[in-house]
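cache lookup: miss for this entity combination. No prior model stored, computing from scratch. Input as submitted by user K.M.:
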Amino acid sequence: MSADAVVLLSGGLDSATVAAIARRDGFAVHAVSFRYGQRHAVELDAAAKVASAVGAVEHRIVDIDLRAFGGSALTADIDVPKAGVDTSSIPVTYVPARNTIFLSFALAFAEVLGSDDIFIGVNALDYSGYPDCRPEYLAAYQAMARLATKAGVEGGRPVQIHAPLIDRRKSEIVRLGVDLGVDYAITISCYDPSDDGGACGECDSCRLRRQGFADAGISDPTHYAGIR
Amino acid sequence: MSADAVVLLSGGLDSATVAAIARRDGFAVHAVSFRYGQRHAVELDAAAKVASAVGAVEHRIVDIDLRAFGGSALTADIDVPKAGVDTSSIPVTYVPARNTIFLSFALAFAEVLGSDDIFIGVNALDYSGYPDCRPEYLAAYQAMARLATKAGVEGGRPVQIHAPLIDRRKSEIVRLGVDLGVDYAITISCYDPSDDGGACGECDSCRLRRQGFADAGISDPTHYAGIR
């Protein structure tokens, strides 16, 4: 019997690749996505397609209200920047404590399942400067998680936070995913997609994705509505 | 101008005391409560009264769906035990990763406010054996939180997780709160209250509360519906 793993699934390129890695490594995938007041619910449709494609045991969508606090271009009425990736400061697309909140729900779900394995698709290289995508953050999260649950008191296998893309370049991720059979046409990375799910092609996330396919020498299947 | 603090407010005895401590220490209190599928929404009414009584700047209620995962007598259809406090194992009233989730929302709220101070009313002595009420857990959470936010990258004052009741007995908490003017009649600790907000008097939380007042030699203002 496969061990259960909780996989955070955004519907984007990275998490789709991570789900495929979890399957490759023999885990039964319990996918979790969040409806968190993001502008683009089209993400959730993509996540459902990815969960199905990877053969997930289940796909749960959890409602959380990050708009109650605001503070990000992704959850409040702030424009998504499209002038190019600026790595000199943390961009307005940063959502305060988002990965901390997502991992905390994953931890709750894992504890209920009796699972010790949580997969998250962060990477620290071609990211946009978010504090909660750094290896030292994830290590601290794992140390906390090991004290947070019943297993932390009663013993048992400690919780593992798997971030297999943490030190990969976007082009490596694309190559790895293609090798694992990921269909990137069903994924969406854009911070500001059109209503029909087309990617803008110009936000940080689109730029990193396009560059990743270009660097990998792989044809990009993304529908960029914003680019003629 | 007072510094802002985020205070997790459940409507119970401990968090009401913590809110009073935050005010005593000069903080402007931004109270946060959660509607998390708990059986007893009467908690939220109590939290609103406590927020008002302590002069909170605001009181936000965040909807989260812990019932999506279940796994606890407080969020699923499992009976609340009333035979007495059993400290030999973690009880079914434990909600998986609850404090981790609550603190993560508090961290997001603090980051949006520009606040570095989060107050939580856990205590490790007269508690019910929950892993996420232990000092080592809170220390690990704080270490993680300091890496999770913009301040963790850009510098600035590190996040402080204040748990001023962590090593206090329930009787000490009651005495401290009475000294600070807390009106415990508006608080509710019961895991299984009646529809009119009366406490059962027999769940672990009621037993610990009753014992606390008895040990403090202070008259218990709680309305125990279950006790004649």
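stored under new cache key. Chain B has one domain: 4-189.
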